[in-house]
Design goal:
By secondary structure, this protein is mostly helical. It is about 85% helix and about 0% strand. The N and C termini lie far apart (about 35 Å). The chain has one domain. One of its GO terms (cellular component) is plasma membrane. Keywords: Cell membrane, Ion transport, Manganese, Membrane, Transmembrane, Transmembrane helix, Transport. Its main location: membrane. It holds the Pfam family Mntp.
Length: about 180
């Protein structure tokens, strides 16, 4: 009995890390902007909260919504990242274009939704499997928070090395990850 519970925890932990990797990847690009450590900490917490809210909603609605909506939400999340990444690359060449990615207010909410939307899809599936909801939510939230912090801190260090090219690299990372979500 204990082996089954440990196995379930390990499986959910790997799933939480896999879902948090998109937050890590996107955070690399975001971290290349001039962001203070205090703000990085706050952003990581917000991402973690959304990685709790989205799968919870998915789990609750898992039996009520068909699986076809899961692929639609993933597609929309990927398209959002492609658009944000494209804008970052273009704004690196045209300094008159305002930044789309803002780590405050509504921009932070869009960012959090875009990296946690796949957690909603996973939550739909988990809602049908009868998994321990509290365990899932704690693991998903903690993994995404930690991976977001790690990505932003690494991105911040890389920015110092790359200078003006960091925005192009950051936008390229977001664009590529969006394409991966759409076609991967």
């Amino acid at each position: 009995m204990a082996g089954i519970q440990i196995g379930e925890v390990v499986s959910l932990l790997f799933m939480a890390i896999a879902l948090g990797m998109d937050a890590f990847s996107v955070s690399l690009g975001i971290g290349m902007q001039k962001i203070r450590l205090k703000r990085i900490a706050f952003i990581g917490i917000v991402i973690g909260i959304f990685h709790v809210i989205m799968p919870f909603i998915g789990i609750v609605l898992g039996q009520a919504i068909s699986s076809s909506i899961g692929s639609l939400t993933t597609l929309l999340g990927g398209l959002l990242l492609v658009g944000i990444g494209s804008q970052m690359v273009f704004s690196a060449f045209n300094h008159e274009v305002p930044q789309v990615i803002k780590t405050t207010g509504i921009g932070l909410l869009f960012f959090a939704i875009s990296v946690s939307i796949d957690s909603f899809s996973v939550g739909l599936g988990l809602g049908l499997s009868g998994v321990k909801i509290a365990l899932v939510l704690i693991l998903f939230g903690a993994a995404s928070t930690i991976l977001t912090w790690l990505g932003m801190i690494i991105g911040r260090k890389v920015r110092g090395l790359l200078g003006v090219y960091s925005e192009i690299l950051g936008g390229s990372i977001l664009f590529a990850f969006g394409l991966y979500i759409i076609f991967g």
